[in-house]
Amino acid sequence: MHETSTTRRWHRAQAGIGHGVETIDTPSLVIDLDAMDRNLARMAAFAHAHGLRLRPHAKMHKSAELAQLQIRHGAVGVCVQKTDEALALTEAGVRDVYISNEVIAPSKLLRLAQAVRAQNAKFSIAVDSLAGVERLAQALNAADVSAPAAMDVFVEIDVGHGRCGIAPGAAAVTLVRAVFEHTVLRFAGLQAYQGAAQHHRTGAERAAAIARATLAVQGTRQALEAAGFKVPLVTGAGTGTMALEAASGVWGELQAGSYLFMDADYAANEADPLAPAFEHALFVKSQVMSRQTGHAVCDAGHKSHAIDSGMPAVWFPQGLTYSSGGDEHGVLRVDGPGPLPDLGETVWLVPGHCDPTVNLHDFMVGVRGGLAAGVVERVIRVDARGCLG
Q: Per the count of CB atoms within 10 A, which of 118, 192, 371, 381 is most buried?
């Protein structure tokens, strides 16, 4: 059988297990497993202390292995944003996946309905339109799924993000009533995620945004209860605001995802003293490939990390800044009195945004014992890489 370049790279990475971190090829996406384990434990303790369900966003790491690890640490399941992400993770063994996003295309809904019929996993989904409800029910019917409450549905309300979500209040009542018209569906609660608030830099800004979101959820719950509908669960929240949702008494489930790895953008937020202190656990290993007067160049360009939230931060050596050198190159300059790194020297980068950075890689290399002198423990597949449908 012909071995693809992807397979060769996978085998090469696997061959590094048990060897020192210095043997990892560059550029590579590397997980500090010790830091990740501490993040896992801190999040599990936080959710338990507040009596909340944890359903972390697996769209961040796109890995069935890491999703199952989170479930072993107390998560009830995971959420994703795309149909094919959900299918990729369940095919790899994850058993409870919520698509916290709207799916309208009949072909995608049919793929999902066929997976529901196979009963290999529990699926749930968000809706924000009557058409979304009707098409979901039609897809389940086309796949011969007829069992009562075969699929959970969350009605998404816009709590301030200005993206998806029906208006809070009366409009949500109409949509919930439509869900109840289909016995194959079960109204599971409200999806209420204020994504923009995750990246407000000050605690005061984030608190104000979640206070407004809380009022929107409370008003919608009251309208639904007045119409005779009970709200079983409110799900949402992200790494940047979860302490606020936890304190509100409104949300019953947290969808934080970035806490597992963190990134440079989250590090720019003012810390919330009520939230756990999560550590950077995701890095791009690169090396210096050119050294010129006044700058050096590393081999990690935009093909190895996302730039939608800005350039990566240089973790080590300290005292350097990274600027764009294009697809294959990063330009390093000294920010202080220190020297430029030498040719071949390792440079560790913290990506600006972890989610789309992971999507650029087929696998992540897990290191135990730190970045300086650690050992490769395992190689973790990015099972849902490129699952955009």
A: 192
- Give yes or no for residue 321 having a pLDDT over 60: yes
- pLDDT digit string, tens, across residues 259-294: 999 999 999 999 999 999 999 999 999 999 999 999
May I ask the CATH architecture of the domain 34-261? Answer: Alpha-Beta Barrel (3.20)
Greatest C-alpha distance within the chain: 72
Which alpha helices (DSSP H) does 95-241 contain, by range? 106-118, 130-142, 170-180, 203-226
What average pLDDT does range 343-347 have in this prediction? Answer: 98
Provide the percentage of residues in the chain whose pLDDT is more than 70. Answer: 99
How many Å apart are CA 3 and CA 151, to the nearest integer?
Answer: 40
33/69 Cα distance (integer angstroms): 12
CA distance 29 to 85: 20
- For β-strands 295-298 and 53-54, DSSP reports them as unpaired
Beta bridge partners, 235, equal 191, 253
Sign, CA torsion 130/131/132/134: positive
3-state DSSP call for residue 218?
A: helix
Other CB atoms within a 10 A radius of the CB of residue 350 amount to 25
Q: How far is CA 371 from CA 57, 136, 297, in A?
A: 26, 47, 21
Report yes or no: 374 and 367 within 8 Å, Cβ to Cβ: yes
Domains 5-31+278-381 and 34-261 fall in the same CATH topology: no
Closest CA to 356 of 61, 122, 147: 61
CA–CA distance, 220 with 231 (Å, rounded to integer): 10
Give the CATH architecture of domain 5-31+278-381: Beta Barrel (2.40)
**pLDDT, tens digit (0-9, with 9 covering 90-100), for 8-17:** 988 898 989 9
Would you say 293 and 334 are in contact if contact means Cβ atoms under 8 Å apart? no
Between the CA of residue 113 and those of 69, 97, 117, 151, 232, what are the distances in Å?
27, 13, 6, 9, 23
Decide: 207 and 273 in contact? Cβ < 8 Å.
no
What distance, in Å, lies between the first and last C-alpha atoms of the chain? 29
